[in-house]
Write a structure and sequence with these properties.
The protein is an alpha+beta fold and 591 residues long. 46% of the residues lie in helices and 14% in strands. The longest helix has 27 residues. 42% of the residues are buried.
């Protein structure tokens, strides 16, 4: 593909977007609010046929809405938005000049048109990945906007309304007008009646056309890992998976994958709110990482996405910053326990030892197994139990969660279950599960925590028992290292409470402790610290500091801490999962 010329005037898209937004808002206001039309204009317009001026004002309203809708895409350099705005601006200027005699407004529209044409090379970005659910969102948002604007159109001519229609009749007039029918509101002025009719009909037609376009255009899933891509990534993990504990999570089937030119490395990502979000390090041969990173950045540039990485290692961050000219910021630490040195003996492990002994005396037992050794009935029981304890309908996870359990392709995963029969002993075999840990492979000799859930009515300390038994059984499974939870801002929490910490560090520590009332920041760090792990720093990679808030929001959306799905409509479910979901919440400490 031919390379795009370097961006020479980066301010142009932003200015064009704000200009489109401003012109669109003014077109809407002038079309629906009579005082903005001016008495002189009204006198001149009176010389023209009423239907002509009414259609012109309705067209101005519709084009104003379109310009407002396209403003954000124009700022993001979307080429389709540029093409549409370039067509709309001359039409808007023509209506302003011929039918409304607004010379200044027409001149501004033509000036913006000239700037857009002269700087057409600044608008090159392709469309975002899409699904037909965007048509649903478009219809709902446009409908709300139509009703709001239609209400203003119907009620901004009070002196020409015959009688005193009720609120219900006025709303009925708006709704009927959107589908091209006359409503119960009657106007004494034929020109006003025409204006209201054509404005409402134009709004309804705009909603219908844009919704139909979004619904009928070819569907392209926002993110999907094809079977062929999954096989290629698994082959890379088999050879190079020991490098990164998060590598196996690249096999989530709601991620897209981009490969290096040699095919020896790949980057898993998802596009969220205009951010091309990768997680962990690239998968595969480290020598091929630069090629995959360059392709990733080229793809982000083609679509005008913000490239970002969350949770990469220090080695990965160095390559990202070197190859992409990006910046890196440490966001926390991953807790890794080496099983050979783990023991419950000694004063340092006293609290954990006492908690484990107490929970076992309460009648709890643990089983540690490879998923491949489970029967389908056992998988169903574990999956059902984990789903029932989730507490919400939202499946969380992106960077450190696999999003499924019991898939035949994941037989090397490790599951730890805690069991306890009910007091009356009535529980059937397999139905006495009280907690579940699920680990994914981390190379040939490691496992990485994916899922941690327990019965909310179970006794405190059950999570500690599960982790201890997993660490103790690890050598028999050939596992030398176990990656546990990720602790956000661990270094700040650890250093901020030490003697001699400076005022800035103490202030930042106080903020994190305060936020821990709602987010499990401090509690997760202290839970991990009980097992005396090695702390491995993780980083976020970003283009510029101004992009960090946007990246943060996109990451929260990807992890499902911010859910923008329609209530009751699971359109963000992992449609490509080949087995039932029991998605992980690795960084969220259960109660």
């Amino acid at each position: 593909m031919r390379e795009r010329p370097p961006i020479s005037r980066p301010w142009v898209p932003a200015v064009a977007g704000y200009a489109s937004l401003t012109i669109g808002i003014l077109d809407i206001v002038k079309a629906v609010v009579p005082p903005f039309r001016g008495t002189r204009v009204s006198e001149i317009a009176g010389l023209l046929p009423g239907t002509v001026t009414s259609i012109a004002q309705a067209a101005s309203l519709v084009m104003g809405i379109l310009l407002v809708m396209l403003a954000h895409a124009l700022k993001r350099r979307k080429v389709r938005a540029w093409r549409t705005v370039v067509l709309l601006l001359p039409l808007s200027a023509l209506i302003e000049l011929v039918h409304m005699h607004r010379i200044v407004s027409a001149a501004i529209s033509l000036a913006v048109f000239a700037v857009l044409v002269a700087n057409r090379r600044e608008f090159y970005a392709l469309s975002d990945p899409r699904t037909r659910w965007r048509a649903v969102w478009n219809f709902l948002l446009m409908f709300v906007l139509d009703v709001a604007i239609g209400w203003v159109v119907v009620n901004t001519h009070p002196h020409t309304i015959v009688g005193d229609p009720s609120l219900g009749e006025r709303l009925q007039h708006v709704l009927l007008g959107l589908v091209g029918l006359e409503g119960p509101v009657v106007y004494s002025s034929e020109r006003t009646a025409d204006l209201v009719y054509f404005s409402l009909t134009g709004l309804g037609l705009l909603t219908a056309v844009t919704t139909a376009y979004l619904a009928l255009r070819p569907e392209k899933p926002a993110a999907e890992l094809s079977p062929e891509q999954e096989e290629a990534v698994r082959d890379m993990l088999a050879r190079h998976g020991a490098r990164d504990s998060l590598g196996y999570f690249a096999l989530r089937r709601d991620k897209s994958v981009i490969f290096s030119p040699s095919g020896k490395a790949a980057i898993a990502y998802r596009v969220v709110a205009g951010v091309m979000l990768a997680s962990g390090d690239p998968v595969g041969d480290i020598e091929a990482w630069p090629g995959a990173i360059r392709r990733f950045l080229d793809e982000a540039k083609r679509h005008a996405w913000v490239p970002a990485v969350i949770g990469c290692s220090e080695a990965g961050g160095e390559i990202w910053t070197r190859e992409g000219g990006l910046s890196a910021l440490e966001i926390g630490d991953e807790a890794v326990v080496e099983t050979a040195g783990f023991t419950l003996q000694g004063r340092a492990m006293r609290n954990v030892r006492q908690m484990v002994n107490r929970i076992e005396r309460a009648g709890y037992t643990c089983r540690v197994r490879r998923v491949g050794t489970l029967s389908e009935a056992e998988k169903d029981l574990i999956r059902g139990a984990a789903d029932s304890w989730r507490g919400t309908e939202t499946e969380r996870g992106f960077s450190m969660a696999l999003g499924r359990f019991g898939d035949p392709a994941d037989d090397e995963c490790v599951v730890v279950t805690a069991h306890r029969s009910s007091d009356d002993g009535a529980a059937a075999p397999g139905e006495d599960i009280r907690a579940v840990l699920h680990f994914v492979p981390w190379g040939p000799d490691g496992i990485s925590l994916d899922l941690m859930r327990r019965d909310r009515d179970a006794d405190p300390g059950l999570n500690e028992l599960l982790i201890v038994r997993a660490l103790q059984a690890a050598p028999e499974l050939g596992v030398d290292r176990v990656s546990l939870n990720f602790a956000m801002f661990r270094a700040v929490l650890a250093r901020g409470e030490r003697l001699g910490a400076g005022p800035v560090l103490r202030a930042w520590h106080a903020v994190l402790v305060f936020l821990s009332r709602w987010f499990q920041i401090e509690s997760l760090y202290r839970f991990n610290a009980k097992f005396h792990p090695l702390w491995i720093p993780r980083f976020v990679v970003y283009p510029a500091a101004r992009d960090l808030p946007r990246i943060g929001i996109a990451a929260l959306q990807a992890e499902a801490f911010i859910n923008v799905a329609l209530p009751g409509i699971p359109f963000r479910r992992r449609r490509h999962s080949r087995a039932g979901d029991a998605s992980g919440e690795r960084a969220a400490l259960p109660h």
